[in-house]
Every structure is written in C-alpha cells, then in structure tokens.
Design brief:
Largest sheet of chain B: none
CATH class of chain A: Mainly Alpha
Strand content of chain B: under 5%
Structural class of chain A: mainly alpha
Distance between the termini of chain B: 97 Å
Helix content of chain A: over 70%
Largest sheet of chain A: none
Number of helices of chain A: 7
Order of helices and strands of chain A: HHHHHHH
CATH topology of chain A: Four Helix Bundle (Hemerythrin (Met), subunit A)
Distance between the termini of chain A: 37 Å
CATH architecture of chain A: Up-down Bundle
Oligomer: heterodimer
Radius of gyration of chain B: 30 Å
Largest interface: A-B, 35 and 31 residues
Radius of gyration of chain A: 20 Å
Structural class of chain B: mainly alpha
Shape of chain A: globular
Number of strands of chain A: 0
Helix content of chain B: over 70%
Strand content of chain A: under 5%
C-alpha cells in the first residue's frame, strides 16, 4: 500500500485506472436508471414517488461514506503525515458536499408529497444538515488558510471532531422519535425491502460509489498537480 | 413508470436536479484537472525556456574563456 501511496506512482496508477472506473460508472448508471425508472414497480403506498428513493438513499449513503473517507485520510495525515492523505481528504470534500446536498434536496422533494412538508426538524434531517455544514466548513478551511501544512492540520482536526456526527446520523432514527423509518437495508436479520425495490437501490448505490471513486481519483490528480504548481511558483519567486 | 400518476412532477424534479448536480460535479472536477495541467505546463515551459536562454547566453562566454591564447 505504501508503495502506491507515492505521488508519482499514484499518478501513473490512477491514470491507468480512471478509464476503467469511468466505464464501470457509466454501465452501472445505465443499469441503475433502467431498473429504477422502468423495471421497478410503483410502491403500493408511495406510488411512483418511491422512485425518488433510488437516487435519494444512495446519495445519503455516499454523504456518510465520503465523510468517513475524509476522517480516515485525516487520521493517516495527522499520525503518519503521508503526503497523499491530505490530498485524498481535501479532494473528497466537494464531492461529499454535492452528495449531501442531493440527499437533502431529493429528500425534500420526496417529503413534500409524502409527509406534506418540504422540511421538518427531525433528528435525521437535522443531523444530515449539520453534516452538510461540516463539509462546507471543511472546504472553507482549505480555501481560507494559505499555508498548506497548517490548513491540512486544522482541516484534519475539524474533520475528526465532526466525525462524531456520522454515528449520530446513522442511529438518529433509533435514538429519537423520527419521521424516518428505521434501518431497512443493513439489518442483522437481512433487508426488509422487497427485491424489486432493493435491487435497483443497490445498483444505484454501486453506481454512486463508482462515480465517487472515478471523481476522487481525478480530483486527487488535480490536487497533486496544484501542489506542483505552487512549489514551482514559490521556486520562481525565490530565484 | 406511469407519467400520469400523482406527484410525478416531484419525481421528475428529483431526477432532473440529481442529473444537473452530478453532471455539474463531473464538469467541475474535469475542468479543475485541465486548469492545473495547463498551469503546470506554462510554468514548466517558462522554466525550461529560462534555462535554455541562460545556457545560450553562457555558451559563447564559456567558449571564449576556454579558447587557448596564441
């Protein structure tokens, strides 16, 4: 693992992987959209509105997954000071913020016809809104602090402090009274959803994951190049 | 999918918004990579250009210095 974490090796490896990751993403989105919009039946209670779940639930999964990735990379950055860990954390944040925004916005578009409200101060909704604000704060730290080593350290600490929100989001539906249903896919006794709904949901989940991997690899390459540009500019100023 | 079903507008809006955000995110990530590549290429061109110019100006004086005096 350490061998591939060298920026030069990473550039070579990611350059080879990105076309395959992009192809897998396109295939999974094609299959996922077909299953979500054509193959899946309307729900007996939600009607056609259930189709929003196929894009809302994976966005919410990715919001948590990407933040967990940032927290993991931040631990590596703080303890081992690995040059790629900061780049991995920083480049994941805007992607995670987009997924979180989609989870909130599509949830709102589902909530209006189903609950009769665009927004309620429910524990799950509020904790996801806090996650979105954490993403924005994390991005703002990188944007406002000029010195990269200082920015990386502060951003990593903020990411780790904010990670406490991830289990709160996950278990909010069990700890507090919530309009949201309890976990129905990742359960000890198996999913509580019929396969006609579960399969499109899982395929869309894989499609979102493949998209994140593809975009994260590209964004990490940009971040490595940005650092090279900065170093060259500083060297030019010194000369 | 039944296009005349209740609340179909909410479904269409959710898919349209998701498509717009995901496509926007892809374009932004790719545009950033291109911008960094082009900035790096410009800096490296400038760097090698300066080195070449410096080498060119150094060459004649070095040759003169090394010329044996007769």
């Amino acid at each position: 693992m350490q061998r591939y974490a060298n920026p030069t090796r990473f550039m070579a490896l990611s350059g080879a992987l990105i076309p395959y990751a992009a192809a897998v993403t396109v295939l999974l989105f094609g299959a996922g959209l077909y299953l979500s919009l054509v193959s899946a039946p309307a729900d007996y209670q939600q009607g056609e509105t259930v189709r929003i779940m196929f894009i809302h639930v994976p966005a919410a999964w990715m919001a948590l997954f990407v933040y967990t990735t940032i927290a993991g990379a931040s631990v590596v950055a703080l303890i081992w000071r690995h040059p790629l860990a900061d780049a991995a954390a920083r480049s994941a944040a805007p992607i995670g913020a987009c997924f979180t925004f989609l989870a909130l916005a599509t949830g709102s578009l589902w909530g209006k016809p189903m609950w009769g409200a665009w927004w309620v101060w429910d524990a799950r909704l509020t904790s996801v809104l806090v996650l979105f604000l954490l993403y924005l704060g994390y991005i703002a730290i990188w944007q406002t602090i000029d010195e990269p080593i200082r920015a990386a350290r502060i951003a990593a600490i903020v990411a780790l402090v904010g990670f406490v929100n991830v289990p709160i989001i996950k278990f909010s539906v069990e700890w507090w009274n919530s309009l949201h249903q309890p976990a129905s896919v990742l359960r000890m006794d198996g999913p509580a959803i019929h396969s006609s709904i579960l399969v499109p949901l899982l395929v869309m989940g894989l499609a979102y994951t493949a998209l994140f991997i593809t975009l994260h690899l590209i964004a990490m390459r940009s971040e490595i190049l940005r650092r090279r540009v900065r170093n060259l500019q500083l060297a030019r100023l010194d000369a | 999918m039944d296009f005349s079903a209740d609340h179909i507008g909410f479904v269409a809006a959710a898919y349209a918004l998701t498509g717009a955000v995901l496509v926007g995110m892809i374009l932004a990530v790719v545009a950033d990579l291109r911008a960094q590549r082009s900035a790096l290429a410009q800096l490296e061109d400038g760097h090698t250009g300066r080195r070449r110019r410096a080498a060119r100006t150094e060459e004649p004086s070095t040759a003169k210095a090394e010329e044996p005096s007769t």
